[in-house]
Write a structure and sequence with these properties.
Could be a mediator in iron transactions between iron acquisition and iron-requiring processes, such as synthesis and/or repair of Fe-S clusters in biosynthetic enzymes. Necessary to maintain high levels of aconitase under oxidative stress. One of its GO terms (biological process) is cellular response to oxidative stress. One of its GO terms (cellular component) is cytosol. GO terms for molecular function: iron ion binding. By secondary structure, this protein is mainly alpha-helical. It has a single domain, classed as Fe(II) trafficking protein YggX (YggX-like, Orthogonal Bundle). 49% of the residues lie in helices and 9% in strands. It has three helices and two strands. It has helices at 24-33, 36-52, 60-76; strands spanning 4-7, 12-15. It has a two-stranded antiparallel sheet with strand order 1-2. The longest helix is centred in the middle third of the chain and has 17 residues, at 36-52. The radius of gyration is 13 Å and the shape is globular.
C-alpha cells in the first residue's frame, strides 16, 4: 500500500517514499514531506552534482555540501548550479 504525502517540493499530494532513505532529522522531514517523484528528480541532480564537482562521499565537507543542496532544492525550490545544465522551463 502506498502512502500519500503533501509534497513540499511539488506543492501537491503525491505518493510518498516507501521508507526513510536519508538518516536523521532531515531524512524524517523528507520522508514526511517529500514525494517519491520529487526525490527521484533530486537523485538525478545529485548524481550530476557529484560527477561535475567530483564529490567524494567519504569526505564530510562533500556530504555537507550535498545535504545543503538537497535541502535547498527539496524545501526551498532552489536549483543547484550544475555547469552546462539548464533546467527545463516550466
Amino acid at each position: 500500500m502506498s502512502r500519500t504525502v503533501y509534497c513540499e517540493h511539488l506543492k501537491k499530494e503525491a505518493d510518498g517514499l516507501d521508507f526513510q532513505l536519508y538518516p536523521g532529522d532531515i531524512g524524517k522531514r523528507i520522508f514526511d514531506n517529500i514525494s517519491k517523484e520529487a526525490f527521484g528528480i533530486w537523485q538525478k541532480k545529485q548524481t550530476m552534482l557529484i560527477n561535475e564537482k567530483k564529490l567524494n562521499m567519504m569526505q564530510a565537507d562533500d556530504r555537507k555540501f550535498l545535504e545543503e543542496q538537497m535541502v535547498a532544492f527539496l524545501f526551498e525550490g532552489k536549483e543547484p548550479t550544475i555547469e552546462g545544465y539548464v533546467p527545463p522551463s516550466k
